[in-house]
Design brief:
six-stranded antiparallel beta sheet; alpha+beta; 19 strands; 6 helices; single chain; 41% strand
Length: 264
């Protein structure tokens, strides 16, 4: 294996974290801000890139280019590596940034590559390459919710994604088509054909309230779907804050009717 072979355990229900168990000189890499806790004896280092073997062979400018591409996905230029430098076994944990689930991905069992939404990556065994995937389809790029850019994870180790709400894995057969909300798409394997399809019917488009486009995925391959995209959660919070922020009768039994009668 090119990637470090790690063991893990996922804790929690709605607010999960993953505990990674490392043997001596094994390393796990993570995005900035995902660290939760670790045992004594762990060494931290900041990587300009992802520390994968492919990136190490690119030279300085290759690393600069790879790191610069990650800026397009909204991630940091740098990643943090946690290495067990002593005897025995040590553990380090990484927490999800909002309510949802952590999804373990064994890339060796997934043909060495998955495509995921650009903010889904949490952590991975050292050796996993974290890059970007450009869409070659204009419709998917303009209306797919994630634009032309998604994250690409490659290698033969374990990687961990995070997504909102409940997560479901669908196995699509050859020619089988699945249509989902563009924001609910978490990840898919390389064989899946991903495109955007416009909702049919003027009434549905204008009054349906579900947007103008579906994500269309055609098998064969695996697809991971989330029930609560972070954008949807953020929209609800912002909407509620505008209403409750101006209320003076938080405990009133009249609620919105009181606002109406009060002239608000």
């Amino acid at each position: 294996m090119n990637s470090h072979e790690i063991d893990y355990k996922i804790f929690g229900e709605e607010m999960q974290f993953v505990e990674i168990e490392l043997d001596p000189y094994e390393t796990v890499i993570a995005e900035s801000g995902s660290f939760m806790m670790m045992d004594d004896g762990m060494e931290l280092s900041t990587l300009f890139g992802d520390g994968s073997h492919e990136e190490a062979n690119k030279g300085l400018w290759g690393k600069v280019l790879s790191a610069g591409k990650r800026l397009l996905t909204g991630e940091s230029l740098f990643m943090t590596a946690f290495t067990h430098a002593g005897p025995g076994k040590k553990r380090v944990s990484f927490a999800a940034p909002y309510p949802g689930q952590i999804v373990p991905m064994d890339l060796a069992a997934l043909d060495g590559r998955i495509i995921c939404q650009k903010d889904a990556f949490l952590c991975a065994a050292k050796g996993v390459s974290i890059g970007i995937e450009f869409s070659r389809k204009i419709g998917r790029g303009l209306f797919g919710g994630e634009g032309f850019i998604m994250q690409k994870l490659e290698g033969d180790g374990h990687a961990f994604l995070h997504a909102g709400g409940a997560i479901i894995e669908k196995e699509l057969q050859i020619g089988e088509v699945l249509r989902i909300d563009t924001g609910c798409l978490v990840a898919f394997t390389r064989e899946v054909d991903y495109d955007i399809e416009m909702i049919k019917g003027v009434r549905n488009m204008v009054f349906g309230g579900e947007g103008l486009f579906y994500a269309r995925l055609e098998g064969p391959g695996k697809v991971w779907i989330q029930s609560l995209p972070f954008s949807r959660l953020a929209d609800r919070i912002i909407s509620a804050s505008k209403y409750y922020g101006k209320r003076k009768d938080e405990g009133s039994i009249l609620g919105p009717l009181g606002d109406l009668l009060g002239g608000d």
